[in-house]
User: Fold these one by one.
Assistant:
Number 1:
Amino acid sequence: MKNISIIGSTGSIGTQSLDIVRANDDLNVVALAAGSNTVLLEKQAREFKPDIIGIWDEDKAKELRVALSEFDIRIVSGMDGLIEIATYVKADIVITAIVGMIGIRPTVEAIKAGKDIALANKETLVTAGHIIMPLAKEYNVRILPVDSEHSAIFQCLHGEEDNKISRLLITASGGPFRGKTRKELENVTVEDALKHPNWSMGNKITIDSATMVNKGLEVIEARWLFDVAPADIEVVVQPQSIIHSMVEFEDGAVKAQLGTPDMKLPIQYALYYPERRYLAGDRLDFTKMNGIIIDKPDIDVFKGLTFAYNSLEKGGSMPTVFNAANEKAVSLFLNRKIKFLEIYDIIENCMDNHEVIENPTLEEIINLQKETEKYIDKNFLNN
Ligand code: NAD
Ligand code: MG
């Protein structure tokens, strides 16, 4: 029996993780945390009967204590609660399905508590990869990628531990605006940007896919997970989302992992690694495919990749500023306070105005997020 804790259980990755638990008798949920969706969290608690659940807001935790009074479930709130869920003594593995830099502290504490991490929360690695990876080594825990591209690379690298990687080829779908010019993107709406062609995901990552900031974050994520130099990480557009990523070895051989776009596969692979289990779902039919399309990304229009490589080159705290500025800009766009292309302007401006801190500590990273948010409020909002 594998005992699982999920932080972010009500979101896209969280609910699909619970689908995997439903389909497998040897997986057991012991702890769940969510941001604000009390209705779904209550439902999940009734179904999976974890020992402990958490919700961000203490008032909502009070509501849940009343609603779930017939169960023996501990209900916690806030950052302390989130950390309690991430470090819960009975959990063997923590799925970090929470969105944003708020995932950093619970992930660090989970590692220190000896938990394996099924990592979906890429913002944590982007901003604190230099802390997380050595910490995982020190505590002898595994960081198992859930992001589909990184899971693909991880699957390709299985059995290749002693072999030299020459390149990682990360695939991108290109998002809903692939092929569009900058002019055509000037007045796109939130609804347009939320229409992802292949994947159904949370709002923040869907906007990140439209700007291609998501792919930029994934380049940084790959740099930390696989210890590959940024110059050896290449992004190619694969609009069908069938090739989930590829690895080229020094002899020129390229290994790829293919499949229909379904996040349940990488989630399940992380939970059972290195074992494969049956997973229901569509299978690829190569005879019905009209060739496999590979294209180059348009880095002039979709600047997410340029920001990522620049921030890796500057190093230190620059990826934190890239990520924090993006988190804030995306939330402003989703709240209809700024236009789509202003997401790029905000990120660029924040990065240009940042003086790099080498090797930032956790505190510095978290403070920098607050400072970046304040800077954006001051310089980009007229209120
Ligand atoms: P989502 O918005 O659908 O879900 C986010 C979850 O985090 C929700 O359960 C929400 O309640 C929870 N949350 C937010 N703030 C919280 C707080 N303060 N305290 C506790 N819980 C909080 O997001 P998602 O699409 O599932 O993405 C989650 C993470 O996985 C992101 O980092 C994303 O980049 C990554 N990811 C997602 C996908 C995907 O297919 N959705 C694919 C690859 C990577
Ligand atoms: Mg991905």
Number 2:
Amino acid sequence: MIRLRQVLKRYGSTIALDNISLDVSTGEIFGFLGPNGAGKSTAISLICGLVKPDQGEISVDGLDIRHNALEVKRRLGLVPQEIALFDNLPAWDNVEFFAKLAGLRGALLKERVSEALEFAGLADKAKGVPKGFSGGMKRRLNIACAIAHRPKIIIMDEPTVGIDPQSRNHILESVRQLNKLGSTIIYTTHYMEEAEEICSRIGIIDHGRLVATGTKEELRLLVNEEEKIVIEGTDLNFTCLEQIKALGLVKDARTKGQSLEILTPHAQTILQDILFILQRNLVKVRNITLVEPDLETVFLSLTGRKLRD
Ligand code: ADP
Ligand code: MG
């Protein structure tokens, strides 16, 4: 659906995107995860044809954007990082303006504008002007503007920065919903929780380089962090601990108060064996927790720095 090959973009002496190759398939929610200045917005501007690459090729829906800029734009809905609205025009007119730009007219135009406002949870604010809206409402209106023409591909650039939790949840739910309705989504964020929550695949980006791409499970496997199994129970004894330590995949095991912590590269594989040992030693298990390395750990391990400074 979206294909980048060895794309390079410079701003003066800054390399904003450094030789990026990427494929996003139809139906995905693909996330660019990276800190400020990583190159997320640049990648999006390139995909939308808003800026030209210095090197490399980009195609959308099989169309090379160099030769098919207009056709590509019709297939896209962009929610830019900076909110772009007419502050003194009613919400309805804002959506209508962008829907007209995308080619909608007449009865269909009205229908789609109404549908988009409804979708953004702003049906009752159609006559209100953005000037009086909260940050979250403006953001949702901006989304309505981008989706009224029902684009095949929806691109959202950090749509949840600086807004209230309720609007945030609404937006994340909208992303899932739009995807279910058939749109391919590209989503950028510096919040790893969001990327984990909604993205089917994630590209980790730092200093203009795409350092890794994969599902969150695939990304976790890239780092040599151990998983941790925490077992809470009564009558955890020394024999039991020694038997668990003797299991092949156990890196380390120790008791901590009334719980037992086991470090292993493969928790799922050995869980059954551990439970068997506990049962044989008459341990009464109250709770088992599996702690996996998160994307923050992955980012740190791949780039040597934290996602948020
Ligand atoms: P992100 O969206 O991940 O925060 P950007 O794509 O905005 O990152 O920026 C990537 C790099 O390119 C940064 O170093 C930024 O300062 C630089 N950059 C982005 N846009 C411009 C521009 N229009 N002119 C000069 N430098 C830019
Ligand atoms: Mg940005």
